[in-house]
Amino acid sequence: MSVFARATSLFSRAARTRAADEAARSRSRWVTLVFLAVLQLLIAVDVTVVNIALPAIRDSFHVDTRQLTWVVTGYTVVGGGLLMVGGRIADLFGRRRTLLFGAFLFGASSLAAGLAPNLELLVLARFGQGAGEALSLPAAMSLIALLFPEPAARSKALSVWASVASVGLVLGFLLSGVITQLFSWRWIFLINIPLVSLVLVAVLLLVKKDETTARNPVDLPGALLFTAAPLLLIFGVIELGEDEPRLPLAVGSLLAAAVCAAAFVAVERRTAHPLVPLTFFGNRVRLVANGATVLLSAALSTSFFLLTMHLQEERDLSPIEAGLSFLPLALSLILASLLVPRLIERIGTTGAAVLGMALAALGIGCFALLPSDNSLLTSVFPGMILLACGMATGLVALQNAALHAVTEADAGVASGVQRCADQLGGASGIAVYVSIGFSPHLGGDWDPFTVAYGLAGIGLIAAVLAVLALSPDRRLAAPREQED
Asked: pTM of the full predicted structure?
């Protein structure tokens, strides 16, 4: 064989080897995405999976409805409060390392929740799940960005990630009913253990070790204050709603929440590397958008909580039947999500945000005003469909507004703040609306469900008025408007 032929053969072999290596790396990153998506699914499922199981948990621990709010809010408050610092920790200590620790903490807390002998330990375990979410989710999202540097591939990967989250929220209602009735409510947590174990093994095998990096320090005082304020607020509100409230403890908790909120502002103003730079809120569009997100999420989470209790207590449905009753909401949510981008293009971000919140308010009105002895088809499903359409339209439009005029320097902060507004708003809404609605001190013949729904509806109306009064031209900046 001539020297030229030998060189050509070696070059072709090297080219084939490179092509095979590229194909293997491409397969590896998509396989990695699959396991990261499994973790995202579990985290999303655990937001809603407890809802159908709440009556069973209440009967198991012999507690009242107001105390059950901790089972829902404990997860979302801690997760939302620590979410932004989780991203900083991933930068400082490494994404792979942070993801592994966060996923392990989520799995260990799930085990503790499934084995909890009383409500207090169950709530503590839910706190642990929230902390695991706050650590693992930002690390996983940043890993996806690094695994898929090409814009087209990254967009596809993030679309898969977002779709899995939406599916998980809906799947939580269905799984909760099936697992609670056929097995036990404890298995809604214990089922996480083998799946989290698979994720941990996959990350160890597929994700390369972290490189040593030097990043800005974590604003731990800000993170602790940001998490403590809503927890103290929720505790104080729930304590005030007790049959015999401990007033000094309740008032002290509410005052401590206000002190933590004020201290957070002071810390962020003085620290060199704030968790949330206060200048970020100088943009009125983003400020009002996040405020409206808090109120919308509060109304939505409260409605889900009340619906699950209503279907099993007032309608006497089994857990499976209650879970299946959420199918119209799930299907409407998926269909509406597909239409939202076109809707925003046609009527703008302001129009879509107002329309979404108005539809959600109408849905809540259906739940509050229609008689409970009518069929599901005429009294519950219409409200569900309106609520789902309002949820899809309102949240997406407000998310767009919350990212108004961001730059590369503050895009991550904007996304984190919006996610925190969503989670903390939902948790606080359940605590405030349900505690007031079911308070024994309310008096009269008020139906607690109607009162709680009414408070959620009032919050939504306030959000609509805030968005409409946002600016003289009454417009939020839609993506296409920013480019003009």
From this structure: 0.75
